[in-house]
Amino acid sequence: MDTENRIDEMDDEAQLKTLLKSFNLEAITENLKSCGITYRSLKYINSDDIRDAISNVGLRAEFREKLFFWRKSEFNIDDKTISADSKVSGWLKEQTSTGSSIQSAVAHLNISNILQLYPKGQGLLHYYETKNVLTNVHREDLISVIVEHAIATEFQIRTSEFPQIVDQIVSIFPTESEVRDFYFIPRSGKKNPAGKLYAKYTNNRTKRIKLDRILEVPVKDQTKSQKWNLLDFDETLYLADKTELMREISDWNLVLEKWNKTHLTRRKDVKTLDGAEFLKAWPKYADSRAPELIQIDFKLLFPGREDALSGKWENFKEKISLYYESNIHGPSSKELLKTLTKAENIDSSDFILTILLPSVLPSNTWFSSKTSRSRTKYTLLDSQESLVLRVNSIVDYQQRIADIISKNYSNLETVQPFVFVEGQSATSLKSFFVYFDKTIYKFDSFIQSLDICFKIFNTLDLKYPPASELSWNFIQQYFYNIYTEYDKKSANLSSLLSFLKS
């Protein structure tokens, strides 16, 4: 195969990948390649070909609809009425007239399709349809939609391709032919081009590249100049990624990729939105696989400490038992400690050792009772259940958690995570969960559930339940080596930490 043919094949593969990325269907790349489907052949394949290439019904249906819409907008091919022969004929006619065998890469940046993807773009189309004109405000919005999509999909626009994009804008909004220079002004010689579309794209792409490089550096290794003030963070760089995460995405690996890229956007939202608004903006927390997303954020915030709990747990178990024997005095806690020898599995013993923490880290906090005007001190049971709740059956969890929220938080609409376990007794646990805003995450072990609950608190800046605040502070400081100005001070906590570190 000669060099020119190899280059053509490379271009074809790159075009195919770019198109599938714009579809959010990168997961089917290998399916198509294994069946010999190339970018060029996408014009000719039919529903039977798609069925042969993609076995997953959901992905197949999504690809078919997006492909047919793309063919209609790009080549005016109506897949419901036009035969394959007429498509080939049209293709040959087009090639004869243009003399080009491969379209410009910018054809993938189909402005008409992009506008349909975003509410702001749809609003622009509707406004122009009724008014037949765009204002400067609308032009700025149009530029934002195009640039945000290009940045989010990592689509690189070459300087020579900007006139073609402006051509697309004029074809959609004909009256814009009079203001082409608003979008792009070519220059000759060494002068840089101008125009607001060109300027916004180049500036945002430069920012995105710099920010991506910073995110690759662990927080502890960043220089002062690399530290980002979240309130000054330009979230428009990742707005399209955030928008995509609000939609259904069949490829979970793509979700993980976009979640990683939108970390700083999410941190800004944590600082500026209330709990309900935040979860509405980031609906992927309702997915059963959300613990993977929580792990990503925790690793970015606290690099090197993502496995701290499991790494120190065995050493903790050995020492804490000795501490409990000398420092637990209450009769109910002493009886619970004795049940360690009767635990039917490791998870049950891990649970017992955990809920004994409030016995040596008692709460001195008071709360207002719903039944009277008097203030009541949290009991040991309150502390234990707000740390980890045990239910005999999973059907019991909702009311029990509602009771804990009402005791620990004045705002009953608060968004808080809770660990709860299922078992007829502390020694015979069988299931482990984290409850978070009406979503239940299920885990294979008790330690995993405790780990994710802690990470939800600390990636979303949520308050620990007052009844078990000291116990959570202990977990935070001993296992994860995280200290903050908000940590509660306690002689009991200092004593326990000193003993375990000796």
Overview of this protein structure:
Helices cover 56% and strands 6% of the residues. With 502 residues, the chain is mainly alpha-helical. The protein has four domains: 101 residues, DNA polymerase, domain 1 (Orthogonal Bundle), CATH 1.10.150; 99 residues, no CATH class; 74 residues, no CATH class; 194 residues, no CATH class. The strands form two sheets. Strands 3-4-5-6 form a four-stranded mixed sheet, with helices on both faces. It has a two-stranded antiparallel sheet with strand order 1-2. β3, α22 and β4 form a beta-alpha-beta unit.
Q: Can you describe this structure in just a few lines?
A:
The protein has a 4-stranded mixed beta sheet with strand order 3-4-5-6, sandwiched between helices. It has a two-stranded antiparallel sheet with strand order 1-2. Strand 5 and strand 6 form a beta hairpin.
Topology:
Blueprint: H1 3-22, H2 29-34, H3 47-53, H4 57-75, H5 84-98, H6 111-117, H7 119-131, H8 136-152, H9 162-172, H10 180-183, H11 196-215, H12 239-245, H13 252-261, H14 263-272, H15 275-281, H16 290-301, H17 308-327, H18 331-338, H19 346-355, H20 357-360, E1 366-368, E2 375-377, H21 380-387, E3 388-391, H22 397-408, E4 417-423, E5 429-436, E6 439-443, H23 446-459, H24 469-479, H25 491-501
Parallel strand pairs: 3-4
Antiparallel strand pairs: 1-2, 4-5, 5-6
Helix pairs in contact: 6-7, 8-11, 12-13, 16-23, 24-25
